[in-house]
Amino acid sequence: MDEELKKKTQETAAKLFSKGIKMDPPYKLWKEFDRDLANDLSLHITGKIYSRTVLTLAERQMAACAMLAALRATDELKLHINGALNVGCDPAKLAELFFQLSTYAGMPTVNEALNAYKEVLVERGEWPIKKV
């Protein structure tokens, strides 16, 4: 295993998921089924994709949150909302991003995303969102 890639993977994962809500990343589930494949997936997703610099980590998290919300993948969305907040995404912009879904995915999707977002904020002790 390439030590540089392993280091990048660990550093990126730490930035995203080392604080905030108490939720296991999907990696832990993957390992229960196939440890080697879990490591390969983690190195690819976190080490090769998330650590690229074309987009900032915050921009990647905003994109991930939009896509996961549109897919109504609520559990994964909570994990990435937490990650987005951990890397400095503006809480008001995240809320706006979820409202933007109304045009493309409908209001039930917006409502699910906002509920997931509020749950994460409550657990982090950051609800209500502070107005600037």
How would you characterize this protein structure?
The protein has 132 residues and is mainly alpha-helical. The chain has a single domain (3-124), classed as Up-down Bundle (AhpD-like), CATH 1.20.1290. The protein is built from seven helices and no strands. It has helices spanning 3-17, 26-33, 35-49, 57-71, 74-86, 91-105, 107-124. Helix 1 (3-17) crosses helix 3 (35-49), helix 5 (74-86) packs across helix 7 (107-124) and helix 6 (91-105) runs antiparallel to helix 7. 27% of the residues are buried. The mean pLDDT is 95.
What does this entry show, briefly?
With 132 residues, this protein is mainly alpha-helical. It has helices spanning 3-17, 26-33, 35-49, 57-71, 74-86, 91-105, 107-124.
The portion of residues forming beta strands comes to under 5%
How far apart the termini lie comes to: 46 Å
Mean pLDDT: 95
Tally of separate helices: 7
* Helix content estimate: over 70%
Structural class: mainly alpha
Radius of gyration, Cα only, in angstroms? Answer: 15 Å
Largest sheet: none
